[in-house]
Amino acid sequence: MNKPGEIDFEKFRMLSTGMTQAEILTRAGNPKHIFRIGHNIQQWVYTDEDWLIEITFTGGRVANIDSYRPRP
Predict the structure, then answer these.
(1) pLDDT tens per residue, range 18-37
(2) What are the DSSP E strand ranges found in 1-72?
């Protein structure tokens, strides 16, 4: 079982652009952080062990999904 804000690889690979915020919440749960960037843009951040997953929403739908390992 994952902690809040964590997402495992199997769930991560089921996410795609065009999904709604509700669909992401259903599949991935609550994010670790939410950043509001302007009026219609939000970025949700999840973790998976050593990875950060950033999901960017525009107008309530996923516009971009990015994952990377932060530098130490």
Answers:
(1) 999 999 999 999 999 999 99
(2) 33-36, 41-48, 51-58, 61-68
